[in-house]
Amino acid sequence: MKRIINVIRLRVAVIAAKAAIFLLRLAGSGGTSFPGKLAIKIYPGILSELSRKYRIFMITGTNGKTTTAKIIAEILKENGISYVANKSGANLVSGIAACLISDIKMNLMPRSNTALLEVDEAAFRVATETVKPAAVVVTNFFRDQLDRYGELYDTLRSVRDGISHIPDATLILNADDSLCASLGNNVSNPVIYYGLNEQAVFPVQEQDPALNHDAAFCLYCKTKYQYKSRFYGHLGHYTCPGCGYSRPEALVNIEKITVLSGDFSAVIFNTPSGKFSAQINLPGLYNVYNALAAAAFAETLGFSHEKTVYALSSFESGFGRMESIPIGDRTIQVILIKNPVGFSQVINFLLSVENTSVISFIINDNLADGTDVSWLWDVELEVLADIQDRVSTFFVSGTRADDMAVRLKYAGIYSNRITIENDKGAMLDAALNMLKPGETLYILPTYTAMLDIRKTLEKRYKLKYFWQ
Amino acid sequence: MYRLSICHLYPDLLNLYGDYGNIQALKKRMEWRGIEASVCQVSLGDRFSPSDYDIVFIGGGQDYEQSILYADLIENKKEGITEAVENGVVFLCICGGFQLMGLYYKPPRGEEIPCLGIMDHWTIGNEKRLVGNLIFSIEGLNQEPNGYIVGFENHSGKTYLGERGKPLGKVIYGFGNNGEDGYEGARYKNVFCSYSHGSLLPKNPALADELITLALKRKYSDFVSLQPLDDHLEAKARKSIISRYIRK
User: Fold this and answer.
1) B24 to A377: CB separation less than 8 angstroms, yes or no
2) What ipTM score was computed for the predicted complex, to two decimals?
3) Which domain covers residue A351, as residue numbers?
4) Both A299 and A389 in a single domain?
5) Residues A190-215: pLDDT tens digits?
């Protein structure tokens, strides 16, 4: 009897959620969490029941989840695997439920056999109580919005707890991140590490090595790590002189980064199944890591190099992540910023672009952005002062435009180069007017600002809606 | 030419959320006036020499990082810091730094951790964090409007002032030291303690200038006052938060 009732509840939950998804789309909203919440309310067991119908892959960590998931999706597609993936931002339990429901047919059978799930690092522990992945890719751990996620070590602990729920899942871990790599210690899971070769890239000398370092001290014995080379943040080849904890050997690694340009990167992979070169269709060292994580995933599944190489060179960037929008003979590029290390990496990318023209920061302090904007002071913006002759104006907008203006001033940008424009439409008009043919307007928004500016751009230039 | 030496204490451990902004604000506001500023980093194993610095900054850290430094602080630096404070060196201590100047910190689980004991306050750790925008007023501070200071707080410790303790200011919006007594921060000689982290000094230039003035007066007998600067961006950032939370 109970079984029959559960089957009925499951059906009702699926139908209700599907109806909600349909109505939300009709209303032109990209709302992605409500249908899942509704379904869980009607039938709390829905996630565990539906997820058993799929082979599940998860991606979690602080930075690069969406881009890594995008690349892996492309790799799955190249290998002829039908999959369903949750949309960017819908990475809490409700979003995962909505994603599976959208793929389930009315007879409760799945359309795809694989689910590729980006999971918020704070939701990972709860998600793994019911959803059992075959493999988990973990990108990295950096300090994020402290007001929302709490302290970094708490996030790490919570992901570790999540892993204890899934002892059979293969863990695909970043060897260069001492925090991420530690997840592979003392577990029964199969573990595959990925990382950059010591000489893969010229290690960056940061302005002040003491600052912006999220994990300078050993996680086990609190001794200061020694680095043979450090690539950015705390990523690199570390050894603890106290207890001997050190970077594990990476099975899948990048032997050399041969090109790091403003448009793309080129690398040489070294994996157990051989060496191969690839071009990565996104600029920036942090995207090299995302591509590497995806290549490690492909290696784990035994996919061919050719297909991985093709996927890396052809995938399109995620929503608001280095997304290029051509406007006549000018271009708008939207690059999401969400925490100090990610933002600093975007600034490094801007330095590599030769004719930067107009840069616009849109800083909001809504819950999803982080209500505390002090993190702007942890971003190495001082380097922007060196290129201010190439930037005609720094626009600042958003609910915390004024804070960003102050930050730029103290980074050494002349006050008369900083324009506060709270109206996003007016900011776009003014910025586009300043561009010469062939030039690019770089828009750097926080999360809710990205949704906002994307909506404005969609309306103006008839872009695709993001849930499509 | 006037010169000031700034000490950043434990920059590799206490650098939570924008503490760097306070150093940058002091440095830039000196530079813009032609005052030379040098920043020294003092961390684990280093000795703290009380006569080397004019301004000392101690920031906040995550619990994990803070747990690394207690022993070093008491063994290698307590004596020097105490002497510097008594000699009138200017200190800015934020969040964890504020707690360290007091008598002890009692974590939610485990034993009391003794702190420097230079000032009369103590901190009780809590499970619930006090998080949000913070507005408080400092009496006599020449900053529009009403000597209001704008910042952001995020702390699990509740700090209480003892009989000899004096607050830095009064809470106008937010929690402050403990969300109970309406006090924010603490003040002793030239030591300024606050829970307002990150962009405390950049957005509140009158306070930054007060610290610089105190340090210059202490070091140079011919120093009178600082040249005013154009602070309209700072004032705008401050006022947009004040008008968000306080009705006229």
Assistant:
1) yes
2) 0.95
3) 321-461
4) no
5) 999 999 999 888 766 554 545 557 78
